[in-house]
Amino acid sequence: MSVARWNKRKIIAPREAAGEQQLKATLSWPHLLAMGVGAIVGTGILTLIGVGAGKAGPAVILSFVIAGLICACAALAYAEMATMYPGSGSAYTYTYAVIGELAAWVIGWSLILEYSLVVSAVAVGWSGYAAPLLQGTLGIPMSLMQGPELGGLVNLPAIFIIGVVATLLLLGTRESATLNALLVLVKIVALIVFVAVALPYFNADNLHPFAPNGFAKSTGPDGVERGVMAAAAIIFFAFYGFDAIATAAEETRKPQRDLPIAIVGSMVACVIIYVAVAAAAVGALPYTSFASSPEPLALILRELNQPGAATFLAGSAVIALPTVILAFLYGQSRIFFAMARDGLLPASLARLSSRGSPVRITIFTAVIVGVIAGVFPLDEIAALANAGTLAAFAAVALCMILMRRRAPDQPRAFATPLPWLVGGIAIAGCAYLFLSLPAQTQLYFMLWNGLGIGIYLLVTMMMKPQADVQG
């Protein structure tokens, strides 16, 4: 790696990039909206609602509202920054342009954590729905469909689905986005069916006591953190995904128009869907009956003696959950791509195939997340992914506020309403949710970023003497 690449302080604009490093603009707002909804609606609502209910009880509904509010504020900041800096790096690119290289490296390093672990977590969640079907139809033993902590050997279905989605991405951006849009419709229909079937069984008695573990995070005798905010910190995983839209800015035909539509539209749609599903779930059955299930919504339907609807929901999850993997694996490859093009990773990683796909990065990412998904359980993966996301969301909100102060008169294709209030809520909310994460997750996140900063400083120090000699 040359010295010049590591000493860059100027972002390579998409139009200035070399031909082999220039992504093609093939997407429009329907593709982006489907990508956002596909990324947001996934493991969080289909699987983590059980984990959240175990921490907050029926007040998991409130946890969804709080997490959704914080994400909505972050989404507005993303929409503004994405139209000002329509590159492929999302929060990394905005931080590089507004704050500087070191901060951008930290955010890029956090995004690597977020996107990689999201893909792994969703693959594990997908396996939770696929495993009973595979065992019943093909006779595959559960030991080959669960990680070691759940008593199995390796989660082969999770590894398999990551490989399938990675292969699809290698075929081309527009092709994978079109298929994604079709699968998103399947997923939305499945959730509408769940609400329609479960809502008539709503029993207000199931909501009492509403918040048995209190509001703030507290640690029980078993060492598990509980409370409304502890649940919100995990359920937060269910809302993000709109940031994957921002990574597609460079491949969007009209980013100034299409990005705000997709980012804000996907968040509004998903908040409505999530609150409806959460209310139907905790109202239909006591939360303790599905809190520990890997497929809580399907379990609820079976307990309501609706086996047909349960099978439909589980089948829809198996078919449609890969849309989340697709969106985040896509986003991860574009963030790596942007960092490589800016010189913070080897420039060879920014080369594209003849079909316009970053093949090397996609394959490398798929291998890493496949190993994680094959071994680790869902809740630990999701919690650590949340830590990286919270850092990125707070950074984007800060960048938006700083640009409002530095360049208040600069034209903005999308302007966040009440920017100081919205940005402040996003930053403060992300900080509070981070403090509500399990202590072990906070420690792992600090260790991860400490490692990242150490690598950055080591490489820059190694390169500086060579730069002096060349100078």
Describe the structure.
This protein is mainly α. The chain has a single domain (44-400, 430-460), classed as Amino acid/polyamine transporter I. Helices cover 68% and strands 1% of the residues. It is built from 19 helices and two strands. It has a two-stranded antiparallel ribbon with strand order 1-2. Helix 4 (48-56) runs antiparallel to helix 10, helix 9 packs parallel to helix 12 and helix 17 (378-406) packs antiparallel against helix 18 (419-436). The longest helix is centred in the N-terminal third of the chain and has 38 residues, at 101-138. It starts with a helix and ends with a helix. The relative contact order is 0.21. The model is unreliable at 1-21 and 466-471 (pLDDT under 50). Pfam families: AA_permease_2 (PF13520). InterPro entries: AA/rel_permease1 (IPR002293). It is found in: Membrane.
Topology readout:
Elements: H1 3-6, H2 29-40, H3 43-46, H4 48-56, H5 60-84, H6 91-98, H7 101-138, H8 156-171, H9 173-198, E1 218-219, E2 225-226, H10 228-235, H11 243-246, H12 255-284, H13 296-303, H14 307-320, H15 322-341, H16 359-375, H17 378-406, H18 419-436, H19 439-470
Antiparallel strand pairs: 1-2
Helix pairs in contact: 2-9, 2-12, 2-15, 4-10, 5-10, 5-12, 5-17, 5-18, 6-7, 6-17, 7-8, 7-14, 7-15, 7-16, 7-17, 7-19, 8-15, 8-16, 9-12, 9-14, 10-18, 13-14, 15-16, 17-18, 17-19
